[in-house]
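Table S5 (text form). Sequence records supplied for joint modeling of the two-component complex.
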Amino acid sequence: SQQGEEDPQALSIQEGENATMNCSYKTSINNLQWYRQNSGRGLVHLILIRSNEREKHSGRLRVTLDTSKKSSSLLITASRAADTASYFCATSSGGSNYKLTFGKGTLLTVNP
Amino acid sequence: KAGVTQTPRYLIKTRGQQVTLSCSPISGHRSVSWYQQTPGQGLQFLFEYFSETQRNKGNFPGRFSGRQFSNSRSEMNVSTLELGDSALYLCASSSSGGTSGKGSSYEQYFGPGTRLTVT
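The corresponding structure-token record, covering 231 residues in total, follows.
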């Protein structure tokens, strides 16, 4: 069963604009991670935020976590055509930090 | 460091056959996880191995099995293939520090996947 649910399912923007994707989950988590996947290839780890953290930055990425609302958001600033991909949030919970539960993903299209 | 490698990259099998997929983790990583990705079910966790022991298991039937060798390389096997087993199978490695958690990093590094087609 899916723990995370990303919103929106698909997002289309112009190069240079910001893209925001949201993720909601159902149970308490240890940490939440965001991954990117280009067209049916392997996933690339973007950022991890622990349950006791509220915000984290990495380059053009900004992730927030609201454990009271069981939600997270991923912001990509100044998007580029190369950011076109599917983005997934993944959570781990309980004693299983290495058992990730993924959402269905957001397909981001950045138009040149 | 070389990334996670998976072999083969593509595979076509017939219903009822069995298949073995291989994964070599990043050097020094001792945790290897397997995921199945399909359009309908998305990404689903199969199992995770650490130090040759299955540490976590997902909700898949017993036809799906795996193992890990002393060099951390892992294989997964699917017996009696069904059409619904057609999927992208992804392997991921992580630098788990074991039960103490010391040296653990929970980021997972994925291989390119094996695309299995069952006809």
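Note: The first strand of chain A starts at residue 5 and ends at 7.
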